[in-house]
Write a structure and sequence with these properties.
Largest sheet: 9 strands, mixed
CATH class of the largest domain: Alpha Beta
Oligomer: single chain
CATH superfamily of the largest domain: Alpha/Beta hydrolase fold, catalytic domain
Strand content: 5-15%
């Protein structure tokens, strides 16, 4: 072979190596060791306590809750009983000296101090990070205190609201010594973290060093539709005389009677699912779907009330501290996410942005809108589960093509059920440590 031909072949092989796709990391089921093979069970019960990492206790964490006024006009726009949430609240855990700071964005409808942000806070704080916990843009407190339009679901708007909130948090602590900024979110918060990261590329307030997306929806509409369908599951034992909640309460009562004492702790659901009173797949699906329906109802109710649309709460209805909102929330429970999308989100999107079809909206609010950015941004990674019920056909394929070796796919865990598993915890810390 001539020298010239050899050089041409080497050049060709080098170019092929350059353009070849990097493969995602698929964790082997046998080596992974996560014990819950049922996705519903993993989602509800999460990791057995003995398989979780050691975490600092609250007494060892220098943390406080703070509040900042972002939307002063809300004090005049919302009823008196919403006044306590007209300032955005968040939690900050501080290290003694200079340290990296990580922002945590909560999942659908979740408060900054709910269980998953608290777990992630302890994990990262124990590894030497300052930690800021933020409520989801779909939570009633964030909608009231920090959202410009109080109509969550337009991902770039939600990211803009989050970004302004992060800037306000940073400004409120000028003496906090930060070496670098990081960002993470789980579930819907992961999708929003991706949009926040893209926004930061132009605004440059943080220059995030690393961004981790935990169990994000790919197609937002697919994910919420999958969760909405769970509440329609046919459950044996439920009829006109026995509600779902009575069925579950009966099972819990018999479970505690057999144990001889009542012990409500992190291990409860895992232990309960190993008893003879364990919930069936249909009952677990209904439980997950019901929790999501409550979040959807909260979004629909709060958005309607703040914007005075009159769809759930009459515009002229007098509301004071003593007014019961239960009748209106019951009405909101009849409105699933499709209902919120059709009656509130799409009309707002079309009026404000001259939006078009539902398909166009879905493309704009899902990860698809960020494909080029996510492909080329080496600082962003994804951790997901192959059995996550929020994923639809083709979603894992999209993640593989887009993230390559920055995607880790665990075989089990359901939706965020393995975030507190030791293996996942170590992988998260390794990613942020670089």
């Amino acid at each position: 072979m001539s020298q010239r031909l050899r050089l041409r072949l080497l050049a060709l092989l080098s170019s092929l190596a350059f353009i070849a796709p990097a493969w995602a990391t698929d964790v082997d089921t046998n080596s992974y060791g996560f014990p819950l093979t049922n996705a519903f069970e993993a989602t509800i019960a999460t990791t057995p306590p003995e398989l979780r990492p050691a975490l600092p206790v609250d007494a060892d964490i220098n943390q406080s809750d703070y509040q900042v006024k972002l939307r002063p006009e809300r004090e005049f726009e919302v009823p008196d009983n919403f006044w306590p949430v007209t300032k955005m609240r968040y939690r900050l855990a501080k290290q003694a000296g200079q340290a990296p700071l990580i922002f945590i964005i909560a999942g659908t409808g979740a408060h900054y101090a709910s269980s998953t942000p608290e777990y992630l806070k302890k994990l990262f704080y124990g590894a030497g990070f300052h930690v800021v916990q933020l409520s989801s843009p779909t939570s009633y407190d964030f909608m009231t205190a920090a959202s410009r339009f109080a109509t969550p679901g337009i991902s770039r708007d939600d990211a803009d609201d989050l970004y302004r909130a992060m800037q306000a948090v940073r400004a409120q602590h000028p003496r906090l010594k930060v070496s670098e900024f990081h960002l993470t979110g789980y579930s819907l918060g992961a999708l929003q973290a991706a949009f926040v990261s893209e926004l930061d590329e132009t605004r440059r307030s943080f220059n995030f060093k690393r961004v981790l997306l935990l169990n994000p929806p790919v197609n937002l509409y697919t994910s919420v539709t999958n969760l909405d369908r769970l509440v329609q599951t046919q459950v044996t034992g439920i009829d006109d005389s026995t509600t779902y909640f009575e069925l579950v309460l009966g099972k819990l009562t018999r479970y505690f009677e057999e144990k001889g004492y009542v012990d409500i702790n992190d291990a409860l659901l895992y232990d309960f699912q190993n008893s003879k009173e364990k919930l069936t797949d249909e009952q677990m699906a209904m439980l997950i779907g019901t929790a999501f329906r409550f979040s959807s109802a909260d979004i629909a109710f709060t958005s309607d009330l703040i914007n005075r649309r009159g769809l759930i709460t009459p515009v002229s209805y007098p509301i004071s501290q003593g007014t019961s909102l239960t009748p209106f929330f019951k009405r909101a429970l009849q409105c699933d996410f499709d209902c919120y999308l059709t009656e509130q989100l799409i009309p707002m999107w079309r009026a404000r942005y001259d939006g078009g079809s539902i398909a166009q909206l879905i493309d704009q609010v899902s990860l698809y809108a960020l494909t080029d950015y996510l492909k080329t941004s080496s600082k962003i990674a994804v951790m997901h589960n192959a059995d996550d019920m929020i994923l639809g056909p083709g979603d894992l394929g999209f993640l593989r093509r887009t993230f390559g070796d920055r995607l880790t796919v665990y075989p089990l865990g359901g939706h965020c059920g393995n975030l507190n598993y030791r293996v996942n915890s170590n992988d998260m810390l390794e990613f942020f440590r670089g």
